[in-house]
Write a structure and sequence with these properties.
Structural class: alpha/beta
Largest sheet: 7 strands, mixed
Number of strands: 11
Order of helices and strands: HHEHEHEEHEEEEEHEE
CATH topology of the largest domain: Rossmann fold
Pfam families: Methyltransf_25
Keywords: Methyltransferase, Transferase
Number of domains: 2
Protein name: Methyltransferase family protein
Distance between the termini: 41 Å
GO biological process, one term: methylation
GO molecular function, one term: methyltransferase activity
Helix content: 10-25%
Radius of gyration: 18 Å
Strand order of the largest sheet: 3-2-1-4-5-11-10
Length: about 250
C-alpha cells in the first residue's frame, strides 16, 4: 500500500500552503476558539499552517500527524518563530494521551483521509474521549465535486534553491456505495533538468452526507451541533464542493 505525505509531498504542502495561509478557516477557527477553556489539539497538524498562528495568538495547542516528514517541517516552522509546541506522531483513531482538551480542531477536510468507515468512526469516538466536558470538536468535511477516473492534472512549484517540483495526480478508484475515492500522485523533483527525487503516493478520500454526519456525531455523544458552510457560521450547505464545518460539544453526562 502506498503511503502519503512523505518528504516531497510534505515539502510541496509547505510551499503551497505555508504557515498562516488561509481559506477563511484560520480566522474562522480563531473566532470559534476565542472562548475555549483548556488546551487545544490539532490532529493531522501537518506543517503548522493553522497550529502556528494559533500558538502566536496565545492559544495552548498540541498537535500530531501520521507523517514524520510533516512533523519535521512543523517543528522547524515553530523553531524559526521561537514557539514551543508539543508535537507527536500518532493516528487519529488510536492516539492516547492523558490530556482532556477544551477543543479538537481538524480543518480543510483532512479528517476524510480516513476513508475506511470503521476507522473514521473510531477516530470520532477517540476525539470525544479526549475532550473535557463541554469541549468542542470543530471539523471540516466536504462532498467531492470531482469523481472522474483517469483524468490527470499537473502542477509545479519552484523552490528557494531553484529546484522544480512537479506533481501529476488522478483519481484511480471510486466506490459510491462505500463513499470513497482513491487518488494517486507522482511527485518529481528536478535540478538543472535532471530528476533527483520521485515519490508515488496514494490519497484516499471519504465523504459523508451532511445529515448522516450529524447523526453519527449525535450517536457518539456530541450535542449542540452547528453546521456552517464556507466559514459562514450557521449557514447550511446547498451544493457539493463547499467546505462544511461541524461544531459539536462533547456530552460527558454519565
Amino acid at each position: 500500500m502506498l503511503g502519503y505525505y512523505n518528504s516531497l509531498s510534505a515539502e510541496v504542502y509547505d510551499l503551497d500552503k505555508p504557515v498562516g495561509s488561509s481559506f477563511g478557516d484560520v480566522e474562522f477557527y480563531m473566532e470559534r476558539l476565542a472562548s475555549c477553556k483548556g488546551r487545544i489539539l490539532e490532529p493531522a497538524a501537518g506543517t503548522g499552517r493553522l497550529l502556528v498562528p494559533l500558538l502566536e495568538k496565545g492559544f495552548q495547542v498540541d498537535g500530531f500527524d501520521v507523517s514524520s516528514d510533516m512533523l519535521a517541517i512543523c517543528r522547524e516552522n515553530c523553531r524559526k518563530r521561537g514557539l514551543a509546541a508539543n508535537l507527536f506522531k500518532a493516528e487519529m483513531e488510536t492516539f492516547s494521551v492523558d490530556e482532556k482538551y477544551g477543543a479538537i480542531v481538524i480543518p480543510t477536510g483532512t479528517f476524510l483521509l480516513l476513508h475506511e468507515r470503521e476507522k473514521s468512526l473510531q477516530a470520532l469516538k477517540n476525539f470525544h474521549h479526549h475532550l473535557a466536558a463541554g469541549g468542542k470538536l470543530i471539523v471540516d468535511v466536504f462532498l467531492p465535486s470531482e469523481l472522474e477516473l483517469d483524468r490527470p492534472s499537473i502542477r509545479k512549484w519552484d523552490t528557494e534553491n531553484g529546484d522544480v517540483i512537479t506533481i501529476e495526480s488522478q483519481i484511480v478508484e471510486v466506490d459510491p456505495i462505500k463513499q470513497y475515492r482513491i487518488s494517486q500522485a507522482r511527485y518529481e523533483k528536478w535540478r538543472n533538468g535532471k530528476l533527483i527525487q520521485t515519490e508515488l503516493e496514494r490519497y484516499p478520500l471519504r465523504w459523508y452526507g451532511v445529515e448522516e454526519f450529524r447523526m453519527i456525531l449525535e450517536h457518539i455523544g456530541f450535542e449542540q451541533i452547528v453546521i456552517s458552510t464556507d466559514y459562514k457560521f450557521g449557514e447550511y450547505p446547498n451544493r457539493s464542493g463547499q467546505t462544511i464545518t461541524f461544531e459539536a460539544t462533547a456530552n460527558k453526562k454519565g
